[in-house]
Protein backbone atom coordinates (compact mmCIF):
# COMPACT_ATOMS: atom_id res chain seq x y z
CA UNK A 1 0.00 0.00 0.00
CA UNK A 2 0.90 3.64 -0.40
CA UNK A 3 0.25 5.23 2.99
CA UNK A 4 0.15 8.91 3.97
CA UNK A 5 0.58 9.82 7.65
CA UNK A 6 -0.43 13.44 8.31
CA UNK A 7 0.66 15.06 11.58
CA UNK A 8 3.97 14.37 13.32
CA UNK A 9 2.98 14.34 16.96
CA UNK A 10 3.58 11.28 19.13
CA UNK A 11 1.05 9.13 17.25
CA UNK A 12 2.28 10.16 13.80
CA UNK A 13 5.94 9.63 14.75
CA UNK A 14 5.20 6.19 16.19
CA UNK A 15 3.30 5.28 13.01
CA UNK A 16 6.14 6.42 10.77
CA UNK A 17 8.55 4.34 12.80
CA UNK A 18 6.34 1.24 12.90
CA UNK A 19 4.89 1.27 9.39
CA UNK A 20 8.26 2.12 7.86
CA UNK A 21 9.58 -1.27 8.96
CA UNK A 22 7.20 -3.02 6.53
CA UNK A 23 9.00 -2.75 3.20
CA UNK A 24 5.90 -3.90 1.33
CA UNK A 25 4.42 -0.45 1.96
CA UNK A 26 5.41 3.02 0.77
CA UNK A 27 4.91 5.41 3.69
CA UNK A 28 5.17 9.20 3.48
CA UNK A 29 4.59 11.66 6.29
CA UNK A 30 3.35 15.25 6.24
CA UNK A 31 3.57 17.95 8.91
CA UNK A 32 2.01 21.41 8.59
CA UNK A 33 4.75 23.12 10.65
CA UNK A 34 8.17 23.83 9.16
CA UNK A 35 10.76 21.56 10.77
CA UNK A 36 12.38 24.43 12.71
CA UNK A 37 8.99 25.41 14.22
CA UNK A 38 7.72 21.91 14.95
CA UNK A 39 6.17 22.01 18.45
CA UNK A 40 2.96 21.43 20.37
CA UNK A 41 1.09 22.54 23.49
CA UNK A 42 2.27 19.75 25.73
CA UNK A 43 4.03 19.98 29.08
CA UNK A 44 6.21 16.98 28.12
CA UNK A 45 5.06 14.99 31.16
CA UNK A 46 4.47 11.27 30.92
CA UNK A 47 5.05 8.02 32.80
CA UNK A 48 8.36 6.26 32.23
CA UNK A 49 6.88 2.98 33.53
CA UNK A 50 4.92 2.71 30.27
CA UNK A 51 7.05 4.77 27.91
CA UNK A 52 10.10 2.54 28.47
CA UNK A 53 8.52 -0.32 26.53
CA UNK A 54 6.80 1.86 23.91
CA UNK A 55 10.04 3.64 23.05
CA UNK A 56 11.99 0.38 23.05
CA UNK A 57 9.72 -0.85 20.24
CA UNK A 58 11.10 2.04 18.18
CA UNK A 59 14.67 0.93 18.83
CA UNK A 60 15.33 3.73 21.33
CA UNK A 61 16.06 4.05 25.05
CA UNK A 62 13.63 6.29 26.94
CA UNK A 63 16.20 7.07 29.65
CA UNK A 64 18.09 9.10 27.04
CA UNK A 65 15.24 11.63 26.88
CA UNK A 66 14.26 12.10 30.55
CA UNK A 67 14.73 15.68 31.82
CA UNK A 68 13.22 15.56 35.32
CA UNK A 69 12.07 12.69 37.54
CA UNK A 70 9.17 13.70 39.74
CA UNK A 71 8.96 12.84 43.43
CA UNK A 72 5.79 14.72 44.36
CA UNK A 73 3.21 17.00 42.80
CA UNK A 74 1.44 19.79 44.64
CA UNK A 75 -2.13 20.38 43.52
CA UNK A 76 -3.52 23.73 44.69
CA UNK A 77 -7.30 23.77 44.72
CA UNK A 78 -8.16 26.97 46.57
CA UNK A 79 -7.80 30.72 46.35
CA UNK A 80 -5.62 30.92 49.46
CA UNK A 81 -2.44 29.15 50.53
CA UNK A 82 -4.08 27.18 53.34
CA UNK A 83 -2.88 23.59 53.60
CA UNK A 84 -6.45 22.30 53.43
CA UNK A 85 -6.77 23.73 49.94
CA UNK A 86 -3.94 21.68 48.47
CA UNK A 87 -2.87 18.07 48.23
CA UNK A 88 0.54 16.54 47.73
CA UNK A 89 0.55 13.57 45.37
CA UNK A 90 3.38 11.09 45.60
CA UNK A 91 4.92 10.33 42.22
CA UNK A 92 6.51 7.09 41.05
CA UNK A 93 7.45 7.21 37.40
CA UNK A 94 6.11 10.60 36.32
CA UNK A 95 8.78 12.48 34.40
CA UNK A 96 9.26 15.27 31.93
CA UNK A 97 11.14 14.32 28.80
CA UNK A 98 12.44 15.87 25.60
CA UNK A 99 9.39 15.13 23.49
CA UNK A 100 10.60 16.86 20.34
CA UNK A 101 13.96 15.08 20.40
CA UNK A 102 12.22 11.74 20.81
CA UNK A 103 9.87 12.47 17.90
CA UNK A 104 12.83 13.46 15.71
CA UNK A 105 14.63 10.24 16.58
CA UNK A 106 11.50 8.17 15.94
CA UNK A 107 11.11 9.60 12.44
CA UNK A 108 14.80 9.66 11.53
CA UNK A 109 15.34 8.05 8.14
CA UNK A 110 11.65 8.20 7.18
CA UNK A 111 10.14 10.18 4.31
CA UNK A 112 8.47 13.32 5.71
CA UNK A 113 7.55 16.63 4.10
CA UNK A 114 7.43 19.49 6.60
CA UNK A 115 5.65 22.82 6.19
CA UNK A 116 2.71 21.47 4.21
CA UNK A 117 -0.81 20.18 4.81
CA UNK A 118 -1.94 18.53 1.56
CA UNK A 119 -5.51 18.77 0.32
CA UNK A 120 -7.54 15.64 0.84
CA UNK A 121 -8.24 15.19 -2.85
CA UNK A 122 -4.53 15.29 -3.62
CA UNK A 123 -3.82 12.60 -1.03
CA UNK A 124 -6.70 10.41 -2.21
CA UNK A 125 -5.39 10.45 -5.77
CA UNK A 126 -1.88 9.47 -4.69
CA UNK A 127 -2.31 7.17 -1.67
CA UNK A 128 -4.26 4.02 -0.83
CA UNK A 129 -4.58 4.96 2.84
CA UNK A 130 -4.58 8.31 4.66
CA UNK A 131 -3.93 8.37 8.41
CA UNK A 132 -5.22 11.52 10.11
CA UNK A 133 -3.00 12.11 13.15
CA UNK A 134 -3.47 15.88 13.02
CA UNK A 135 -4.67 16.02 16.64
CA UNK A 136 -7.23 18.68 17.43
CA UNK A 137 -7.46 19.84 13.81
CA UNK A 138 -8.77 16.49 12.50
CA UNK A 139 -8.19 17.80 8.98
CA UNK A 140 -9.42 14.84 6.94
CA UNK A 141 -12.28 13.45 9.02
CA UNK A 142 -15.90 14.57 9.44
CA UNK A 143 -16.47 16.75 12.51
CA UNK A 144 -17.90 14.92 15.53
CA UNK A 145 -21.36 16.05 16.63
CA UNK A 146 -20.59 16.03 20.37
CA UNK A 147 -17.07 17.16 21.12
CA UNK A 148 -15.40 19.38 23.68
CA UNK A 149 -12.04 21.10 23.78
CA UNK A 150 -9.99 23.21 26.17
CA UNK A 151 -8.08 26.26 24.85
CA UNK A 152 -4.48 26.09 26.10
CA UNK A 153 -1.44 28.31 26.19
CA UNK A 154 2.11 27.40 27.19
CA UNK A 155 5.52 29.03 27.68
CA UNK A 156 8.92 27.44 27.79
CA UNK A 157 10.89 29.53 30.27
CA UNK A 158 14.38 29.73 31.79
CA UNK A 159 15.07 30.77 35.39
CA UNK A 160 18.50 32.18 36.15
CA UNK A 161 18.38 31.86 39.92
CA UNK A 162 15.83 30.04 42.04
CA UNK A 163 12.96 28.23 40.34
CA UNK A 164 9.43 28.76 41.75
CA UNK A 165 9.06 25.04 42.50
CA UNK A 166 11.41 22.09 42.70
CA UNK A 167 8.85 19.64 41.34
CA UNK A 168 5.48 19.39 39.60
CA UNK A 169 2.81 21.96 40.49
CA UNK A 170 -0.83 22.32 39.41
CA UNK A 171 -3.36 25.04 40.23
CA UNK A 172 -6.97 24.00 39.61
CA UNK A 173 -9.45 26.55 38.27
CA UNK A 174 -13.02 26.80 39.66
CA UNK A 175 -15.47 23.97 38.84
CA UNK A 176 -12.67 21.98 37.21
CA UNK A 177 -12.83 24.12 34.08
CA UNK A 178 -9.06 23.73 33.68
CA UNK A 179 -5.77 24.18 35.46
CA UNK A 180 -2.41 25.92 35.47
CA UNK A 181 0.73 23.80 35.29
CA UNK A 182 4.38 24.20 36.17
CA UNK A 183 6.49 21.26 34.99
CA UNK A 184 10.28 21.39 35.51
CA UNK A 185 12.53 20.34 32.66
CA UNK A 186 16.27 20.65 33.41
CA UNK A 187 18.91 23.27 34.23
CA UNK A 188 16.38 25.93 35.25
CA UNK A 189 14.07 25.38 32.29
CA UNK A 190 10.34 24.70 32.78
CA UNK A 191 7.06 24.55 30.93
CA UNK A 192 4.33 26.72 32.41
CA UNK A 193 0.87 27.02 30.93
CA UNK A 194 -2.84 26.81 31.44
CA UNK A 195 -6.00 25.45 29.91
CA UNK A 196 -9.44 26.81 30.72
CA UNK A 197 -12.79 25.85 29.21
CA UNK A 198 -14.16 29.37 29.67
CA UNK A 199 -10.95 31.06 28.46
CA UNK A 200 -10.96 33.30 31.56
CA UNK A 201 -7.93 32.12 33.48
CA UNK A 202 -5.44 31.10 30.77
CA UNK A 203 -3.69 34.37 30.15
CA UNK A 204 -4.60 36.06 33.44
CA UNK A 205 -3.10 33.46 35.76
CA UNK A 206 -0.09 32.79 33.53
CA UNK A 207 0.65 36.51 33.20
CA UNK A 208 0.53 36.96 36.98
CA UNK A 209 2.83 33.99 37.44
CA UNK A 210 5.32 35.35 34.90
CA UNK A 211 5.37 38.75 36.64
CA UNK A 212 5.79 37.21 40.08
CA UNK A 213 8.54 34.79 39.06
CA UNK A 214 10.91 36.60 36.71
CA UNK A 215 12.28 34.46 33.91
CA UNK A 216 13.40 34.45 30.30
CA UNK A 217 10.63 33.42 27.88
CA UNK A 218 12.05 31.00 25.31
CA UNK A 219 8.92 30.08 23.39
CA UNK A 220 5.16 30.55 23.45
CA UNK A 221 2.63 28.19 21.86
CA UNK A 222 -1.12 27.79 22.00
CA UNK A 223 -3.95 25.66 20.66
CA UNK A 224 -7.02 23.79 21.93
CA UNK A 225 -6.83 20.23 23.25
CA UNK A 226 -9.70 17.84 22.54
CA UNK A 227 -10.88 16.14 25.76
CA UNK A 228 -13.97 14.42 24.39
CA UNK A 229 -13.31 10.64 24.38
CA UNK A 230 -13.29 8.28 21.38
CA UNK A 231 -16.96 7.47 22.02
CA UNK A 232 -17.76 11.14 21.31
CA UNK A 233 -15.23 11.50 18.50
CA UNK A 234 -16.70 9.19 15.91
CA UNK A 235 -16.57 8.62 13.04
CA UNK A 236 -13.01 7.35 13.08
CA UNK A 237 -13.00 7.10 9.29
CA UNK A 238 -14.56 8.87 6.32
CA UNK A 239 -15.80 5.54 4.96
CA UNK A 240 -13.24 5.57 2.16
CA UNK A 241 -9.48 5.88 2.56
CA UNK A 242 -9.04 7.96 5.70
CA UNK A 243 -8.78 6.80 9.33
CA UNK A 244 -7.98 8.80 12.47
CA UNK A 245 -5.36 7.93 15.08
CA UNK A 246 -4.53 9.62 18.40
CA UNK A 247 -6.02 12.90 19.59
CA UNK A 248 -7.91 13.29 16.31
CA UNK A 249 -10.23 10.57 17.65
CA UNK A 250 -10.15 11.61 21.32
CA UNK A 251 -7.29 9.74 23.00
CA UNK A 252 -6.65 12.33 25.72
CA UNK A 253 -7.44 11.42 29.34
CA UNK A 254 -9.98 14.14 30.23
CA UNK A 255 -9.13 14.46 33.92
CA UNK A 256 -5.43 15.18 33.35
CA UNK A 257 -5.36 16.37 29.74
CA UNK A 258 -2.66 13.75 29.06
CA UNK A 259 -2.51 12.17 25.62
CA UNK A 260 1.05 10.96 25.04
CA UNK A 261 0.65 7.36 26.19
CA UNK A 262 -2.97 6.80 25.03
CA UNK A 263 -2.21 8.26 21.59
CA UNK A 264 0.77 5.90 21.26
CA UNK A 265 -1.41 2.97 22.31
CA UNK A 266 -3.91 4.03 19.67
CA UNK A 267 -1.16 3.99 17.03
CA UNK A 268 -0.25 0.48 18.18
CA UNK A 269 -3.84 -0.66 17.71
CA UNK A 270 -3.92 0.78 14.22
CA UNK A 271 -0.73 -1.00 13.12
CA UNK A 272 -2.18 -4.22 14.56
CA UNK A 273 -5.49 -3.81 12.67
CA UNK A 274 -4.30 -1.94 9.58
CA UNK A 275 -6.37 -4.20 7.33
CA UNK A 276 -9.50 -4.19 9.50
CA UNK A 277 -10.90 -0.77 10.44
CA UNK A 278 -13.83 -2.34 12.34
CA UNK A 279 -11.51 -4.34 14.59
CA UNK A 280 -9.45 -1.18 15.16
CA UNK A 281 -12.57 0.78 16.13
CA UNK A 282 -13.69 -1.92 18.58
CA UNK A 283 -10.32 -2.10 20.32
CA UNK A 284 -10.08 1.69 20.64
CA UNK A 285 -13.59 1.99 22.12
CA UNK A 286 -12.93 -0.87 24.55
CA UNK A 287 -9.54 0.42 25.70
CA UNK A 288 -10.76 3.97 26.29
CA UNK A 289 -14.24 3.16 27.60
CA UNK A 290 -13.38 4.67 31.00
CA UNK A 291 -12.57 7.98 29.27
CA UNK A 292 -16.28 8.44 28.49
CA UNK A 293 -17.16 8.13 32.19
CA UNK A 294 -14.42 10.59 33.17
CA UNK A 295 -15.55 12.98 30.44
CA UNK A 296 -19.13 12.92 31.78
CA UNK A 297 -17.75 13.70 35.26
CA UNK A 298 -15.85 16.71 33.88
CA UNK A 299 -18.93 17.92 32.00
CA UNK A 300 -21.10 17.66 35.13
CA UNK A 301 -18.54 19.66 37.12
CA UNK A 302 -18.29 22.38 34.49
CA UNK A 303 -22.07 22.61 34.15
CA UNK A 304 -22.66 22.62 37.92
CA UNK A 305 -24.60 19.35 37.82
CA UNK A 306 -22.24 17.10 39.79
CA UNK A 307 -23.51 15.91 43.17
CA UNK A 308 -21.14 13.94 45.39
CA UNK A 309 -23.95 11.74 46.74
CA UNK A 310 -25.90 11.19 43.54
CA UNK A 311 -22.77 10.58 41.48
CA UNK A 312 -20.75 8.67 44.07
CA UNK A 313 -20.80 5.46 42.00
CA UNK A 314 -19.28 7.20 38.96
CA UNK A 315 -16.61 8.81 41.12
CA UNK A 316 -15.72 5.48 42.71
CA UNK A 317 -15.38 3.86 39.27
CA UNK A 318 -12.92 6.58 38.27
CA UNK A 319 -10.98 6.01 41.49
CA UNK A 320 -10.91 2.22 40.96
CA UNK A 321 -9.59 2.68 37.43
CA UNK A 322 -6.79 5.04 38.47
CA UNK A 323 -5.92 2.99 41.57
CA UNK A 324 -5.54 -0.17 39.49
CA UNK A 325 -3.45 1.80 37.00
CA UNK A 326 -1.17 3.63 39.45
CA UNK A 327 1.88 2.32 37.59
CA UNK A 328 0.47 3.66 34.32
CA UNK A 329 -0.22 7.15 35.73
CA UNK A 330 3.00 7.26 37.75
CA UNK A 331 1.30 8.68 40.82
CA UNK A 332 -0.18 7.66 44.14
CA UNK A 333 -3.98 7.56 43.88
CA UNK A 334 -6.00 8.16 47.05
CA UNK A 335 -9.77 8.33 47.27
CA UNK A 336 -9.71 11.24 49.73
CA UNK A 337 -7.72 13.26 47.18
CA UNK A 338 -10.26 12.52 44.45
CA UNK A 339 -13.02 13.63 46.81
CA UNK A 340 -11.20 16.93 47.33
CA UNK A 341 -10.81 17.34 43.57
CA UNK A 342 -14.53 16.67 43.04
CA UNK A 343 -15.36 19.53 45.42
CA UNK A 344 -13.45 22.19 43.46
Would you give an account of this structure?
The chain has one domain: FAD/NAD(P)-binding domain, CATH 3.50.50. The chain contains 11 helices and 15 strands. It is of the alpha/beta class and 344 residues long. The model has no long low-confidence stretch (mean pLDDT 93). The strands form 3 sheets. It has a 7-stranded mixed sheet, covered by helices on one side. The chain has helices at residues 10-19, 48-56, 99-106, 120-126, 202-212, 260-272, 277-287, 289-302, 312-324, 326-329, 335-342, and strands at 2-6, 26-31, 45-47, 66-69, 72-76, 86-90, 94-97, 112-114, 129-132, 149-158, 168-172, 178-184, 189-196, 216-226, 242-244. It is globular and about 55 Å long.
Q: pLDDT below 50 for ≥5 consecutive residues: which ranges? A: none
What is the helix tally?
A: 11
Strand order of the largest sheet: 6-5-11-12-13-10-14
β-sheet strand percentage = 15-25%
Secondary-structure element pattern, one letter each: EHEEHEEEEHEHEEEEEHEEHHHHHH
**Total beta strand runs:** 15
Percent helix, as a range, is 25-40%
Distance between the termini: 51 Å
CATH-derived architecture: 3-Layer(bba) Sandwich
Structural class: alpha/beta
Inertia-based shape: globular
Overall domain count: 1
Average pLDDT, to the nearest integer? 93
Largest pleated sheet = 7 strands, mixed
CATH class: Alpha Beta
Radius of gyration using CA atoms only: 20 Å
CATH superfamily: FAD/NAD(P)-binding domain
Keywords summarizing the entry:
about 350 residues, alpha/beta, FAD/NAD(P)-binding domain, seven-stranded mixed β-sheet, about 25% strand
Amino acid sequence: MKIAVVGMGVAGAYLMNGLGKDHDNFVKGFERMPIEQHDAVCAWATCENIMDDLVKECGLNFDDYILHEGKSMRVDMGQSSKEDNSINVGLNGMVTYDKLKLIKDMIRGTNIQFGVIPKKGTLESEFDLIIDSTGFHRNYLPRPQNEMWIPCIQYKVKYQDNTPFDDFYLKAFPSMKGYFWYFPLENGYAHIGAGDYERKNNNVFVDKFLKKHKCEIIKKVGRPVRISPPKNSEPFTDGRKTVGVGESIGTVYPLLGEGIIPSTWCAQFFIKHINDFNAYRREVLKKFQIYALVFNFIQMKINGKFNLFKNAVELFKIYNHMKREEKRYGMEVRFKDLIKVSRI
